[in-house]
Amino acid sequence: MAQINLLKQSKPSEFNNLGFFSVLSKLALFGIFCLLAYYGWLIYKHRATANQTSTLEAAIVSQKQELSEIKGRDEVLIRQAQVKEFDALVSGHVYWSQLMPELAKVTLKEASYLSFKAVDVGTISLAVQVPSIVELEKFLLVFNSPKINRYFTDLKVGGISRVQDEQESYVRVDVQFKYDPGLLKFKN
Description:
Elements: H1 18-68, H2 73-92, H3 99-106, E1 112-119, E2 123-130, H4 133-144, E3 152-164, E4 169-179
Antiparallel strand pairs: 1-2, 2-4, 3-4
């Protein structure tokens, strides 16, 4: 007959760590379940997005077909292209007529221009005639004053000479200065 050993054993059993493996296997099964659920959610979202895309593509095709059946569509498209081209031409055009009034505002009444040369990059060269040195000083001060003059800067005097006319004498000066190129743009 077999004897039953009812005494406690002092040596631990090899299978005593089964609790750790049990918890580990349950965590692994939970992780696999989570991965499967995530994969299922991705498949669902992919199908929903594909359905939405196909619906939008069908709506776009139907709208294109409706637009192509509109009478006068080609004429409207041609006019739109012409307006776009016109806007590009107007915005790129140089309007010298907007520079002249601003130059006239800062020019003294006693001064007269003998020659005028302007470049659309922002420089003007002038030959100016004034009655006296005092008037020349006033002329130069106006172009150097930012309070009076907001469009013209960097005045450079080239040469000053006295010119004797039949009846009067004048002071002639060559000047060069910069202007704001924004003056040449189209303004509504």
